[in-house]
Backbone:
């Protein structure tokens, strides 16, 4: 170390100048520092869940992965002025070159009845031109499940515009341009933006503010702590200055590497300020101690001799703790570990070489009095010295009390371990009053949700009746969960379209009818964005409420279990096949239960439904006094086209049905009674036969409905048409390994990806913590060259980690991407206290110092106390920040490292005293 000290003295000016130049260059690069915090990018792109999630945005333009959500609040949306203004804004947004897709009220599909039948148009095609038309449009949309309560609030005052960008755009600039358009083309409402890009931008802003405000505040707090400890201006400013330089260097390095930072990284300068300051504290503490009796160069040489290795080992162990985080697959954790390790390395270099060069150039003339007191071994000293002497005497002379105290502390913190939980909801991470949380709550209150989960569906043809029906069933089952509400899909729209065309909300059993429905809907941009080009893939979209991680995990598991139990390969068989009717009836009753009905006696209900299903449709033709009227009214359009009265046709039909053995056919009777030509009568007979079949089918369905309503004791709305109309099916889908129809499912979404990240937290922590222990223990072995000594030195840090979990539980601090790192940081940083204490202890013992413990306590212990106070004070500064996750992180780090000092100053002397007593009795006097 003598040569190293001489080298530093010789090249002091070049080292000093190089430090300033590097700092200037990295400081200049900070202009390009960028923050990006997207939970879908927390895991590597190769991760199967992430890669699948990312693949969907290429397949479906309606997949809202990183969408900007614009909420517009009106006094009344449904006025001509507001609707026209909204349309103009949407058109201008669609013109932006970086916009991939826009979903808004104006381009949503709307089923319209015209004189030619039913058509599917976009809302923009039927925008009102008068206030009366606007009111009518509102009334029509209130029954549209795709629009009302989703794109438009229940009170009809607010609407959403959802904008997705291309992947290669600068989202911050894109948001600014969209916001500028919203301001320019404001349709007359209050505009609020939200979504992943907005969250990312707000997090970046808060991260910069955290670094810009809390770092100086932490520096000010540390100045107070250091001045109390050193009573010297250099002792106050230099350690802080060194720490700030290390932060500038590491942030500049991130820019050089082209890396963006996450919100957790904003705490890094504050943490580095605390940790790196420790190296300056120990260096200056030792330098002033030597300077009390030696001149400048000699004091610097003695300082390098005694403190360089401990600082190096402390830095290496801390770096090891941070590098252990690289085993985590979660990006914020691994990045934080990498940058922090780099910052510690820079801090070690600056605290030794740069600080040594500074003292070689600017030799202090005076030494603080308490260092002179320490050197002269006076009995009295400052407050820290007196406290440390008291601890030393208490540990040696009150061993049983010390042991009891440690056990009591451990027992207390053990109570908190069972209370640890994983929680990464936005409100928990950001805080109840954070702007992001407030925005989230606003959109939740007004629009139900701004986040979505998805069910991915793959089949040979997703428009297969079986597949569409399964999508409806899954949506109904999932509706009981907060994270899978308001299912919307191709299937739900076809149900509504079938209602408009056929009169009932159901999925037809015939493929031809499905194709006919799709013919009307296929050109709509909203629907096209939710089905693949070749028709073999589609999505079911669910609104997701903000829930706890535990609740989300429970709901996802329940839905996956339901999906696993659904038939995945089926074949079509005639309902006339043996046993097929029983399967149809079982399916109907199961569907009723999926729709949320509690059926007291399912077996009895199945028997009643089967009895109805067995009846041929002919038995329902002509039944009831109103049957003829129903048939005639069903054929109203065709009857009026012939210039006839519906009532007259109904009267003719009634006589026909009342005649048990009619002589004339319907066409002959119509020709006779209504004076129709033969061709017109035959045409009308065909029309009436079709209507007759539809009414008979409806009566059969209504018979089933009444049986079910009587069973459950309440009226059932038209949503149950889906179940009841299956009684008309002529085909049944049977599970079969050789079936021609197969389907597979997979759930995903931003909340699910976030939950997936959560599921990895415990495993990631265990792995990184184990690696940190291995690294630290290996370095202790390297330094102490003794398995016994290294084992003793590691005990306090083991207890520190154990205690950290207890603290998390007692303080109700959840495990998340920030608090996950505390154990590894505690290992790497907390071991510093042990290294400095053990190094000084064995040095004093080797010199046969009769006051080895007191000397170690007062000298190294002083640096340890100041170090711990500095780290704790700096960490606690994060508690004043706006981001809840960082507040929890700061409070936990500060508390854990204070506890680590307790073990280092109380338990470690006790262990070292016992080790020395048992291993070398001749040295007993050295412990007194």
Residues:
């Amino acid at each position: 170390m003598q040569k190293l000290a001489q080298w530093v003295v010789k090249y002091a000016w070049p080292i000093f100048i190089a430090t300033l130049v590097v700092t200037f260059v990295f400081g200049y690069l900070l202009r390009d520092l960028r923050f990006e915090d997207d939970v879908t990018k927390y895991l590597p792109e190769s991760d199967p869940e992430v890669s699948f999630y990312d693949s969907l945005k290429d397949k479906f333009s309606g997949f809202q992965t990183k969408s900007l959500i614009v909420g517009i609040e009106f006094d009344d949306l449904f006025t001509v002025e507001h609707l026209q203004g909204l349309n103009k804004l949407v058109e201008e947004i669609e013109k932006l070159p970086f916009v991939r897709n826009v979903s808004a009220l104006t381009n949503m599909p709307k089923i319209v009845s015209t004189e030619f039948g039913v058509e599917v148009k976009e809302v923009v095609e039927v925008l009102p031109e008068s206030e009366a038309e606007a009111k009518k449009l509102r009334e029509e949309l209130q029954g549209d499940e795709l629009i009302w309560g989703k794109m438009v609030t229940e009170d009809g005052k607010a609407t959403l515009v959802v904008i997705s960008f291309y992947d290669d755009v600068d989202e911050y600039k894109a948001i600014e341009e969209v916001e500028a358009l919203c301001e320019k083309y404001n349709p007359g409402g209050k505009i609020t933006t939200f979504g992943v890009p907005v969250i990312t931008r707000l997090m970046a802003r808060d991260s910069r503010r955290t670094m810009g405000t809390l770092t100086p505040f932490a520096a000010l707090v540390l100045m107070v702590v250091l001045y109390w400890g050193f009573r010297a201006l250099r002792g106050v400013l230099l350690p802080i200055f060194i720490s700030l330089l290390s932060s500038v260097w590491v942030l500049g390095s991130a820019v050089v590497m082209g890396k963006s930072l996450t919100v957790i990284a904003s705490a890094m300068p504050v943490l580095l300020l605390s940790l790196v300051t420790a190296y300056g504290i120990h260096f200056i503490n030792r330098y002033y101690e030597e300077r009390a009796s030696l001149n400048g160069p000699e004091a610097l040489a003695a300082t390098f001799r005694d403190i360089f290795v401990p600082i190096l080992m402390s830095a290496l162990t801390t770096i090891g703790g941070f590098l252990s985080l690289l085993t985590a697959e979660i990006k914020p954790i691994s990045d934080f570990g990498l940058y922090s390790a780099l910052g510690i390395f820079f801090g070690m270099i600056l605290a030794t070489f740069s600080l040594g060069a500074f003292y070689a150039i600017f030799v202090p003339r005076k030494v603080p009095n308490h260092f002179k007191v320490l050197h002269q071994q006076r009995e009295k000293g400052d407050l820290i010295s007196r406290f440390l002497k008291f601890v030393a005497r208490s540990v040696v002379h009150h061993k049983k009390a010390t042991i009891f105290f440690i056990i009591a502390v451990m027992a207390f913190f053990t109570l908190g371990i069972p209370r640890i939980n994983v929680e990464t909801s936005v409100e928990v991470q950001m805080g109840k009053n954070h702007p992001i949380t407030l925005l989230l709550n606003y959109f939740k209150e007004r629009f139900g949700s701004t986040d979505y989960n998805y069910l991915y569906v793959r089949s040979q043809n997703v428009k297969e009746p079986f597949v569409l029906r399964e999508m409806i069933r899954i949506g109904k089952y999932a509706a009981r969960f907060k994270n899978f509400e308001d299912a919307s899909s191709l299937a739900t729209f076809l149900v509504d379209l079938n209602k408009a065309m056929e009169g009932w909300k159901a999925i037809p059993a015939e493929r031809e009818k499905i194709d006919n429905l799709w013919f009307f809907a296929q050109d709509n941009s909203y629907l096209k964005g939710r089905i693949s080009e070749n028709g073999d893939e589609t999505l079911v979209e669910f609104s997701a409420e903000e829930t706890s991680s535990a609740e989300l995990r429970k709901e996802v598991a329940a839905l996956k279990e339901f999906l696993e139990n659904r038939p995945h390969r089926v074949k079509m068989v005639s309902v006339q096949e043996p046993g097929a009717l029983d399967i149809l009836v079982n399916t109907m009753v199961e569907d009723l239960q999926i729709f949320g009905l509690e059926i007291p006696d399912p077996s009895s209900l199945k028997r009643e439904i089967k009895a109805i299903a067995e009846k041929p449709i002919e038995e329902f033709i002509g039944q009831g006094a109103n049957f003829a009227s129903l048939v005639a009214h069903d054929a109203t359009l065709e009857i009026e086209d012939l210039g006839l009265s519906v009532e007259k046709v109904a009267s003719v039909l009634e006589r026909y049905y009342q005649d048990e053995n009619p002589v004339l056919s319907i066409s002959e009777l119509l020709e006779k009674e209504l004076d129709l030509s033969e061709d017109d009568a035959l045409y009308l007979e065909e029309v009436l036969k079709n209507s007759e079949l539809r009414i008979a089918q409806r009566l059969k369905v209504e018979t089933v409905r009444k049986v079910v309503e009587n069973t459950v004791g309440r009226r059932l709305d038209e949503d149950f048409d889906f179940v009841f109309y299956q009684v008309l099916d002529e085909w049944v889908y049977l599970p079969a390994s050789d079936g021609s129809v197969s389907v597979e499912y997979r759930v995903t979404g931003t909340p699910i990806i976030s939950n997936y990240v959560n599921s990895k937290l415990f495993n990631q922590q265990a792995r990184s913590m184990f690696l940190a222990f291995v690294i630290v223990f290996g370095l202790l072995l390297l330094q102490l060259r003794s398995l016994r000594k290294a084992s003793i030195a590691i005990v306090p840090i083991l207890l520190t980690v154990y205690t950290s979990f207890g603290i998390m539980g007692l303080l109700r601090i959840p495990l998340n991407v920030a608090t996950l790192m505390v154990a590894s940081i505690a290992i790497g940083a907390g071991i510093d206290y042990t290294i400095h204490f053990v190094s000084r202890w064995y040095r004093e013992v080797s010199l046969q110092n009769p006051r080895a413990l007191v000397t170690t306590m007062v000298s190294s212990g002083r640096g340890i106390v100041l170090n711990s106070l500095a780290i704790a004070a700096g960490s606690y500064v994060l508690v004043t920040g706006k981001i809840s996750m960082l507040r929890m992180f700061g409070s936990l780090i500060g508390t854990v490292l204070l506890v680590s000092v307790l073990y280092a100053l109380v338990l470690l002397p006790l262990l070292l005293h016992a080790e020395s007593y048992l291993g070398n009795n001749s040295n007993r006097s050295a412990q007194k």
Q: What stands out?
A: The CA atoms of residues 1 and 305 lie 5 Å apart. DSSP finds 34 helices and twelve strands in the chain. The two ends are 31 Å apart (CA to CA).
